[in-house]
Design brief:
The chain is about 55% helix and about 10% strand. With about 475 residues, the chain is an alpha/beta fold. Strands 7-8-9-6-10 form a 5-stranded parallel beta sheet, with helices on both faces. Strands 1-2-3 form a 3-stranded mixed beta sheet. A hairpin with a 2-residue loop joins strand 4 and strand 5. The longest helix has 18 residues. It is globular, with a radius of gyration of 25 Å. The two termini are about 30 Å apart. Bound molecules: adenosine-5'-diphosphate (ADP) and magnesium ion (MG). The site of adenosine-5'-diphosphate (ADP) has 16 residues, from helix 7 and helix 14. Adenosine-5'-diphosphate binds next to helix 7 and helix 14.
């Protein structure tokens, strides 16, 4: 397979921080802040060629640990950022500051021996806050547009007056649409305003793990104190509580205790409260007490705005065609959009020149394939909608018109128009030979009902998010 990024000139050591910075972003997405700090804070990129990468670690313990736990992740991160895997080698920091003849920027830590936990404690990473927030996830860095302005406004209100406006705030939407970003923005905003506020950000999986640990180690009292004394609790991806009865029970009490104390609670999930199965009704009903806000996939203007903002932050200049090309092709998910930009930016930085459109196509080959694979077909929409409303697939194309069939069919037509490239008459054909006026009517009607009925809006949003996966 030909190299996707051709590094014509050997990248100089000054260029490594940029590439490594992008890799680090990927690593941080995949692990907790503590783990990242423990194992990667003192790690640097020492050499990079078309086929190989050498990373410099403080000692052999790091090599051992990273090799046995994070090698796949590292490889995947190189692939993600540069478009091609690298064979990974390790080197230790030599006292002269060179590795295999390559000079290094001073690493954050130069120690021959592994660092023990206590020392680690004192050495907080400069770029991470003590709460495990990713410093990139701020309100300033968040691009607001038609599909997320409601959620954004709600988050801003909560961040400005925690516990006083919407409580709880429940954010929902598909993968990579900014739920974690907004929650952490709330946390960081509150923390910046009030240094001693106890802001707790945690995923529901961490909550469950902590809870199990507490049972095993007989430390439930400590566990409860930690959670119930929070001033602000941000709990991410609550869908993972589904099916875990004891964790739900514990969470229910935590929730009540915080809520009764007028402490701000923010929850996120991949689906609206109404779509939960395997989650206790009394818990689900509480999710609905405050405000529910949805994040939907970004439209084209937003995608371009996001790309521009991120390129600016990276201090990379790209032309309009490049932005348009990426934004038109990478649609459903901001994370993938960022991945595509990172690759183009890495190329531009390494080669000192902007890639041509053909080159970009080549660089993004697998991302574009993935997008195409994820492109939703009309059949998938019909099938998913039929399942959801418990009607027969044949009813999507039939002429039968009772409301319990007609409305799901109209929703499916609406989704077909929103999510596929099909023209009105192509969509009409796929729905049993209806004319384009019927499709247009269905689209308008669903849109209108979404404006007026929260339930319809939620259902359509949920179906869309599921289809995007
Ligand atoms: P989720 O938690 O919904 O899966 P994330 O919050 O992790 O999604 O977002 C995925 C990536 O996309 C993050 O790097 C985030 O910063 C970025 N992102 C998402 N939405 C926006 C936005 N509106 N503006 C800027 N960056 C965004
Ligand atoms: Mg998330």
């Amino acid at each position: 397979m030909p190299a996707i990024v051709t590094v014509d000139k050997s990248p100089s050591a000054e260029e490594f921080p940029f590439v490594w910075g992008k890799i680090v972003e990927q690593l941080r997405e995949a692990m907790s802040e503590d783990t990242f700090t423990r194992w990667f804070n003192g790690v640097e990129l020492a050499a990079l060629s078309d086929t190989d990468a050498t990373i410099c670690v403080p000692s052999h313990i790091y090599q051992l640990w990273i090799e046995s736990n994070y090698l796949d992740l590292l490889r995947a991160s190189f692939l993600f950022v540069l478009g091609r895997e690298r064979k990974i080698h390790f080197a230790f920091v030599a006292s002269s500051g060179t590795v295999d003849g390559v000079s290094l920027a001073p690493p954050a830590r130069r120690k021959a021996e592994p660092v023990d936990e206590e020392e680690q404690e004192q050495e907080k990473p400069a770029r991470a806050t003590s709460y495990g927030f990713n410093p990139r996830n701020t309100f300033e860095a968040f691009v607001v547009g038609a599909t997320n302005q409601y959620a954004h406004a709600a988050c801003l209100a909560v961040a400005t007056q925690p516990g006083k406006t919407y409580n709880p705030l429940f954010l929902h939407g598909g993968v990579g649409l900014g739920k974690t970003h907004l929650m952490q923005a709330i946390g960081q905003h509150i923390h910046a305003k009030k240094k001693n506020a106890k802001v707790l950000y945690i995923t529901s999986e961490q909550f469950t793990n902590d809870f199990i640990d507490a049972i095993q180690n007989n430390t439930l009292v400590k566990f409860r104190r930690r959670y119930r004394q929070a001033d602000v609790m941000l709990i991410d991806d609550v869908q993972f509580l589904a099916g875990k009865e004891r964790s739900q029970e514990e969470f229910f009490h935590t929730f009540n205790s915080l809520f009764d104390g007028h402490k701000q609670i923010v929850l996120s999930s991949d689906r609206p409260p109404s779509e939960f199965a395997n989650l206790e009704a009394r818990l689900v009903s509480r999710f609905d007490w405050g405000l529910t806000a949805e994040l939907q996939p970004p439209d084209i203007e937003m995608r371009i705005a996001i790309l521009r903002k991120k390129a600016q932050a990276m201090e990379i200049q790209l032309n309009k065609e490049t932005f348009d090309y990426i934004a038109e092709r990478v649609r459903g998910n901001v994370r993938r959009l960022e991945g595509a930009l990172n690759r183009v930016a890495s190329y531009a930085s390494l080669n000192g020149t902007q890639p041509s459109i053909e080159k970009i196509e080549h660089l993004l080959k697998d991302i574009l394939l993935e997008e195409a694979r994820r492109a939703v077909t009309m059949e998938q929409i019909q099938k998913r909608v039929a399942e959801h409303f418990d009607v027969r697939l044949a009813d999507m194309t039939s002429k039968r018109r009772p409301a319990n069939i007609a409305f799901p069919r109209q929703i499916a037509m609406y989704l077909a128009r929103e999510m596929t490239k099909g023209s009105l008459s192509e969509i009409g054909d796929a729905f049993g030979g209806r004319d384009h006026g019927t499709v247009l009517h269905a689209h308008r009607l669903v849109k209108e009902r979404m404006k007026q009925e929260e339930k319809v809006r939620q259902t359509v949003g949920f179906l869309e998010a599921q289809l995007h996966r």
